């Protein structure tokens, strides 16, 4: 009897230990990545890094201003495309009757888009935009990114609105407020933190994407401000520089990786701030 | 008897093929309070939602019959106009969470794009909050969020929000069922006061509440109007056996 209890205690400590070790190992990849990227990337960070374009092949020094600006332009443009588009679809889905077949198909499509590999979206954007325009452009890259952002925005909009108590909608309608006014002046403002969070998450999802840009924005070693021209982006630059045989470009790639990681951290922080600042107490 | 304000004739309500209300016919009188009573599921909520056309939010709902307000059948009117004349207060207080107390009172104007001067607004807010018995409690922090108030205060804020629209009739669906006894007593006292300005139709499960605050009582059972009359008479000498049993607490 005593033995039995001892054995069971041993068994449970054993399982506890296994779980502890495996949980600690979750930190491992993150720590390794951060260690690598920071220790290598930090060397690249200086004023030139933010103000210069990449040096000529083989020369040392240079910076990634072209990629920073390119990422900024393309992400900004994709937000402008995806937010009104996704917001409308999300609101439409929320507002659709429960038995609407069209809404069912729309939800299904959104889920499918979400699971399409980003490289495929890049190829589709190539066929849609690059081929007809006969050139690579930041605009086509932004479309590819916008398509990737879409599902998250649609879903988070719809789900946020669904979480708002129906009684709020009824309170507004009972005051003789028309349906759409109620939707736009009561329901959406009440869900603003959830909707913004969805938007921020979707930015985080696309900012580090290389695949959709390879066939669309293509990349460029110059500082470009024209969205109809090929443009660089941080993940593209990382991809191109890391593939090159030059040590100085490798350094740039590490530096750019560090910035991207820093940027994603900022987005996570931004989400925390949004939730805190805009949360509506229902 | 006093003036009829609302005349309900042969009201039938359905959800798809399921009939909820059967041929309900009764009158409501100006500046009186009428209780709608009956066991759970008998159709009380459905009944008062028909009165301000809230039943239409469910596309499966259908209504036949007449609800006459000032010689007009509200069922043929624009639902938005009906709802501005007939306000509603719900079981759970639902102030708009993005708005201050001040803006909550004015919500009907703001959301409907009706412009008012600063003075008019201040006057509407004070007047409505006074009628709702909330003015003295909140007058010093009108710009705080309405959702920060206590449950009973929130419910009175919702009443003020309805009154601000100069509604003629106020529908209350079990307005005190989520409140503590003290807040409940507050609302009950308020109803007595409100009768000066509006006609009250209140759904309640609480018999003593009905007896205390209402002039008339309608007793519904399985979607049929069993008995309607002055509250005092209905409670002391019910005509119908079913009413008597319900009042004695034998069912419901
Ligand atoms: N949206 C709806 N769809 C279908 N049936 C409903 C709906 N709302 C209420 N009912 C049914 O109508 C009947 C009356 O409900 P209700 O008016 O809420 O009763 P009460 O308020 O008296 O408790 C119930 O049987 C209920 O199941
Ligand atoms: Mg009810």
What this model shows, in words?
- The complex is a heterodimer of chains A (282) and B (252).
- Chain A is an all-alpha fold.
- Chain A has one domain (51-277): MetI-like fold.
- Chain A has helices spanning 2-41, 47-51, 65-95, 101-115, 118-133, 138-163, 166-174, 179-190, 192-207, 211-214, 234-243, 247-278.
- Chain A is globular and about 70 Å long.
- The N and C termini of chain A lie far apart (56 Å).
- Chain B has 252 residues and is an alpha/beta fold.
- Chain B has a single domain, classed as 3-Layer(aba) Sandwich (Rossmann fold), CATH 3.40.50.300.
- A six-stranded mixed β-sheet of chain B has the order 6-7-8-3-9-10, with helices on both faces.
- In chain B, helix 5 crosses helix 7.
- Chain B is globular and about 55 Å long.
- The model of chain B has no long low-confidence stretch (mean pLDDT 94).
- Chains A and B meet through helix 7 and helix 8 of A and helix 2, helix 4 and helix 7 of B.
- The structure holds adenosine-5'-diphosphate and magnesium ion.
- Magnesium ion binds at residues 44-45 of chain B.
């Amino acid at each position: 009897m005593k033995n039995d209890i001892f054995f069971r205690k041993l068994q449970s400590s054993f399982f506890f230990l296994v779980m502890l070790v495996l949980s600690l190992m979750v930190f491992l990849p993150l720590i390794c990545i951060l260690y690598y990227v920071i220790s290598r990337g930090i060397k690249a960070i200086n004023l030139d890094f933010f103000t210069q374009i990449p040096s000529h092949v083989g020369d040392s020094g240079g910076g990634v201003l072209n990629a920073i600006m390119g990422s900024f332009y393309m992400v900004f443009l994709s937000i402008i495309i995806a937010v009104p588009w996704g917001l409308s679809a999300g609101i439409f889905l929320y507002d659709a009757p429960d038995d609407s077949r069209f809404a069912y198909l729309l939800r299904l499509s959104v889920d499918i888009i979400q699971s399409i590999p980003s490289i495929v979206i890049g190829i589709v954007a190539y066929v849609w935009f690059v081929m007809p325009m006969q050139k690579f452009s930041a605009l086509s890259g932004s479309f590819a990114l916008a398509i990737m952002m879409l599902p998250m925005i649609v879903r988070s909009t719809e789900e946020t609105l669904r979480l708002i108590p129906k009684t709020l909608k009824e309170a507004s309608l009972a005051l003789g407020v028309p349906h759409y006014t109620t939707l736009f002046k009561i329901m959406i403002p009440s869900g603003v933190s959830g909707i913004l969070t969805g938007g921020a998450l979707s930015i985080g999802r696309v900012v580090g994407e290389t695949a959709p840009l390879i066939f669309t924005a293509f990349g460029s070693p110059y500082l470009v401000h024209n969205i109809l021209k090929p443009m660089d982006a941080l993940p593209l630059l990382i991809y191109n520089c890391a593939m090159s045989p030059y040590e100085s470009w490798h350094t740039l790639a590490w530096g750019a990786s560090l910035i991207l990681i820093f940027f994603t951290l900022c987005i996570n922080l931004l989400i925390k701030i949004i939730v805190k600042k805009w949360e509506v107490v229902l | 008897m006093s003036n009829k304000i609302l005349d309900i004739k042969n009201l039938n309500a359905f959800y798809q093929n399921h009939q909820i209300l059967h041929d309900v016919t009764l009158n409501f009188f100006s500046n009186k309070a009428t209780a709608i009573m009956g066991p759970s599921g008998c159709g009380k909520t459905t009944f008062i939602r028909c009165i301000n056309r809230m039943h239409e939010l469910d596309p499966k709902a259908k209504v036949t019959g007449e609800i006459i307000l000032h010689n007009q059948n509200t069922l043929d009117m624009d639902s938005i106009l009906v709802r501005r004349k007939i306000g509603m207060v719900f079981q759970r207080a639902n102030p708009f969470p993005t708005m201050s107390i001040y803006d909550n009172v004015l919500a009907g104007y703001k959301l409907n794009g009706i412009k008012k001067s600063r003075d008019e607004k201040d006057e509407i807010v004070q007047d409505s909050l006074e009628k709702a018995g909330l003015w003295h409690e909140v007058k010093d922090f009108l710009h705080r969020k309405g959702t920060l108030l206590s449950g009973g205060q929130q419910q009175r804020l919702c009443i003020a929000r309805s009154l601000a629209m100069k509604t003629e009739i106020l529908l209350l669906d079990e307005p005190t069922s989520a409140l503590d006894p003290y807040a409940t007593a507050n609302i009950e006292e308020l109803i007595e006061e409100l009768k000066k300005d509006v006609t009250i139709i209140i759904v309640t499960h609480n018999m003593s509440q009905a007896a205390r605050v209402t002039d008339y009582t309608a007793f519904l059972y399985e979607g049929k109007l069993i008995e309607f009359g002055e509250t005092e008479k209905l409670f002391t000498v019910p005509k119908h056996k079913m009413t008597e049993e319900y009042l004695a607490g034998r069912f419901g």
